[in-house]
């Protein structure tokens, strides 16, 4: 058996004494990951076991949660769990179950990391997952950016220590260590694309190359290195060619057209990502349309891209903006105490007293636990207004709410829908996003208020 502990240690993904949230589903991969990280004695990691119950498999999901809780107890590690109705979330957001589950998991893991001061989130993706991801993206249509797939040290704290380890090595490790794990029977459902690729396509490809998973993973690694270089070159060109003022990114067309077409397309992606924070629904056809607009003989023209993105040519300037959000009608609501309060933006705010939770991090972005002593009634709830400031949980200085929206990559058109909860004139919760430091629940907190916002998009 390969020494997986030495393999993980050699990657230098963690610093000595680092606090790390370990995502544990109860499956073979995550059980192995937890065991390996617990054996990195030299690093002395402070591990927190996090589990999201997807509520998709009835009592089986509950049994998974109990299994992981018992596992954490066996390792004498703190355990944090949350239950999310992923099926309802998928329906409400128009997502597949896989995408909805992934979004819910990462939102939860990041919330736990934020509340516990963790600087890493360890997930159990391995070499076979990498190969499957490459094939999924290839089948759906992707360039080098998409095919570079996952990195061992990804964005937003995420780390993948097992990315160069195959599934067979992981299962061999578990058996030699005498460890048990849970099996999710839905993993054999070949109506799900990833499962179909795992159980049907890859076995066929192995007839042509028995090491196809290793070759696909190696290809992803090579492309990732190329992407890192190209991103660096693009960022340099962007700094040289683009100007960013307020909520607009613009280029001088003459200088832009002197660059290679491939770099121009990357610059457009970079500019759009600067504005919205992601590239959802932006395809090659949209980038090519922008390039045609830049090279057009028409001095003035516009493009409407998916979502709220707009591209405008005005003589020698090409500008990227977000559509101005409609200004919502001002409203206010006074919350005198416990209850359920419909808001004028179509959301509902619920407030009730609860026993102090063992760990306030068991909340989520849409659920917050506040100290009633620190945030007494009556509350005032209203939409965001320019100039609003608050002190976020864990900070000492104030921050503009607008800066929070920008850091969270919240699109302009959604910002006016986010309710702000005030107590004694101070923001105690930016609903669905961040608690104010003043309302923090501590070990000395008496009455605790569970606050939930329903039907919110962030």
UniProtKB/TrEMBL annotation:
Positions bound to ATP: 25-30
Catalytic activity, as annotated: cytidine(34) in tRNA(Ile2) + L-lysine + ATP = lysidine(34) in tRNA(Ile2) + AMP + diphosphate + H(+)
UniProt subcellular location: Cytoplasm
Sequence intervals crossing the membrane: none
CDD domains (UniProt xref): TilS_N
Annotated family: Belongs to the tRNA(Ile)-lysidine synthase family.
Name the UniProt record assigns to this protein: tRNA(Ile)-lysidine synthase
Lineage: Bacteria, Pseudomonadati, Thermodesulfobacteriota, Desulfuromonadia, Geobacterales
């Amino acid at each position: 058996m390969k020494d997986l502990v030495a393999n993980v240690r050699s990657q230098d993904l963690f610093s000595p004494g680092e606090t790390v949230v370990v995502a544990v589903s109860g499956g073979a991969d995550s059980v192995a990951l937890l065991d390996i990280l617990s054996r990195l004695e030299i690093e002395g990691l402070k591990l927190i076991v996090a589990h999201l119950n997807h509520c998709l498999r009835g009592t089986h999901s509950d049994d998974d949660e109990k299994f992981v809780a018992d596992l954490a107890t066996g390792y004498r590690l703190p355990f944090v769990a949350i239950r999310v109705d992923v099926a309802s979330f998928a329906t409400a957001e128009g997502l597949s179950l896989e995408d909805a589950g992934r979004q819910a998991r990462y939102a939860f893991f990041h919330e736990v990391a934020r509340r516990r001061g963790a600087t890493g989130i360890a997930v159990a993706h391995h070499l076979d997952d990498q190969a499957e991801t490459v094939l999924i993206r290839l089948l759906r249509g992707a360039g080098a950016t998409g095919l570079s797939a996952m990195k061992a040290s990804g964005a937003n704290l995420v780390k993948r220590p097992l990315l160069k380890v195959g599934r067979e090595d992981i299962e061999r490790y578990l058996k030699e260590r005498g460890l048990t794990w849970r099996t999710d029977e839905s993993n054999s459902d070949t109506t799900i694309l990833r499962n179909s690729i795992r159980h049907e396509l890859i076995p066929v490809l192995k007839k042509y190359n028995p090491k196809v998973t290793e070759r696909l993973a190696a290809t992803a690694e090579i492309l990732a290195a190329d992407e890192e270089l190209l991103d660096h070159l693009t960022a340099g060109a962007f700094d040289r060619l683009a100007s960013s003022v307020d909520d607009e990114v613009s280029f001088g067309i003459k200088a832009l057209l002197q660059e290679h077409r491939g770099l121009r397309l990357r610059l457009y992606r970079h500019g759009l990502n600067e504005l919205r924070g992601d590239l959802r629904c932006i395809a090659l056809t949209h980038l090519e349309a922008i390039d045609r607009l830049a090279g057009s003989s028409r001095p003035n023209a516009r493009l409407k891209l998916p979502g709220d993105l707009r591209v405008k040519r005005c003589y020698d300037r090409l500008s990227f903006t977000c559509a101005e959000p409609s200004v919502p009608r001002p409203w206010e609501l006074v919350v005198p105490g416990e209850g359920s309060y419909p808001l004028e933006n179509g959301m509902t705010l619920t407030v009730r007293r609860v026993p102090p939770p063992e760990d306030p991090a068991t909340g989520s972005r849409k659920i917050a636990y506040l100290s009633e002593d620190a945030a007494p009634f009556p509350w005032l709830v209203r939409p965001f207004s320019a100039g609003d400031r608050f002190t976020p949980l864990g900070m000492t200085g104030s921050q503009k709410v607008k800066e929070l929206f920008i850091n969270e990559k919240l699109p302009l058109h959604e910002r006016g829908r986010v309710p702000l909860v005030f107590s004694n004139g101070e923001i105690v919760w930016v609903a669905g996003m961040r608690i104010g430091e003043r309302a923090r629940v501590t070990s000395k907190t008496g009455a605790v208020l569970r606050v939930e916002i329903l039907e919110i998009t962030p």
